[in-house]
Amino acid sequence: MQNDMVLLHGWGMNQGVWQVIKPELEFFHDGEVRCLDLPGFGNAQLIPTPYTLHAAAEQLSTQLNEKSILVGWSLGGLFALYIAAYWPDKVAKVVLVASTPFFAQTDEWPGIKPDVLNAFKDQLVSHREKTIERFLAIQAMGSESARDDIKQLKALLNQYPAPQEQALSAGLDILQQDDLRELFANLSVPVRGIFGRLDSLVPYRAIEKMHALQPQFEYEVLDKASHAPFISHKAAFISALKSMC
Question: How many CA atoms lie within 13 A of 145 on its CB side?
Fold first, then answer.
């Protein structure tokens, strides 16, 4: 029996983002290709209380078959790493897409500037849709097809229910506070990565830091891609993922 490939989306998104590549993935992957919504996003309207990474990851893990290949984009990558550490029977391999074990910038770690995440959090209260739209714009920044990418993302996302405010707020907290670097360094499950060199949310220097934490970590960097390489550079992304799975 072949391993499932399970795709996990990023903050403010839902499983709709994967529809652009799902048919191609099904073509080369012998097992089932599944797109799951993180709790509180898309069709996954049931959320844990309080909403923590542990509680949400545990809820998500119950939907996985054993030995799944988890492909986690951005926030979805944190979920993939966490599940691999705490429910290892469920995971054969993790592929991080524009994702690191720690997203916040510190003196010794390249990441998202604290004021960027704080601004999103403040704006979320009064302008939810506008905040998500701004986040979409940041994801596409640097990509040659940024405008088209955003248009396509919005159309795909709108096919599913809007995210719950509690999940959006908790998701930002997780991006800001959850530090999985030690967990990543000690993970027994193989981890691979696909990154965009122009990504403003996951700086290129963070990839080198990840490799220092886990020397067996293998990755590919798409030179002209930004934070959503599977949309802006579909063929190159699929080729990279195929080589890792």
Answer: 13
Given the residues 143, 226, 227, 232, select the one marked as catalytic: 227
Q: Are 101 and 210 in contact, with CB atoms under 8 Å apart?
A: yes
**Counting runs of H as helices and runs of E as strands, what totals does the chain give?**
11, 6
Tell me the C-alpha distance between 29 and 187, whole Å. Answer: 25
Instruction: Check: pTM over 0.85? Answer yes or no.
Output: yes
The amino acid that residue 19 corresponds to is Q
Backbone angles phi, psi at 42, to 5 degrees: 55, -130
Maximal C-alpha separation, the chain: 48
User: What would the pLDDT profile of 210-234 be if each residue is shown by its tens digit?
Assistant: 999 999 999 999 998 888 899 888 8
Gap between the Cα atoms of 82 and 114, Å rounded? 23
Tokens of 173: 């907290």
Catalytic-residue membership of 211 = no
Q: Is 199 a catalytic residue?
A: yes
pLDDT in tens, 176-194: 999 999 999 999 999 999 9
In the set 4, 37, 178, 199, the catalytic residue is: 199
Which of 61, 68, 74, 143 is catalytic? The answer is: 74
Amino acid letter at 158?
Answer: N
- What mean pLDDT comes out for the span 53-62? 98
Query: CA 227, CA 215: separation in Å to the nearest integer?
Result: 23
Q: How far apart are CA 191 and CA 63, in angstroms?
A: 21
Whether 74 is a known active-site residue: answer: yes
pLDDT exceeds 80 at position 60:
yes
